[in-house]
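Appendix B, Record 12. Input sequence as logged:
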Amino acid sequence: MVTVSLRQLSHLEALDIIEGRRPIGGWARDFPTETDIAVARMSQPASTTSNTPWSSPWLMICDDVVVGMLGIKGPPKDGHVEVGYGVVPSCQGRGVATAALRALLERLVGHELDVRAETATWNVASQGVLRQNGFVEVGRTANLEDGELIEWRRTLS
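Logged structural output:
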């Protein structure tokens, strides 16, 4: 089993991602992806006064290297939140996303939320990540970018 830790994205890290500045070490060679850059642009990086799980995106760290991002798409609304995640291609297939999502879900325990996610029907790996974390399929929808999507849900207490 792979060991993954999470760290909320800081304001300076978000700027580095957006502006294409790479640290000397600590990032996978293919981090950030275009999606990571878009998330950094839209994010509200962690402040020193906020420590809620949905206050900013999280960096996935495996073997002391940032290998992707995950997060909650905004604060709870009507008792639910939506999660999203992505791992750089060089680190896929190792269980990183599964472990990272598990860690994020642990941070949500006690908030009594329905946690939702969507995956493209062709994204079998992402479906496995959700199943391994206790999500169940609850419906289908579609969008122009990914086509048919599977809707997933898990209730936390």
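The CA atoms of residues 43 and 56 lie 6 Å apart.
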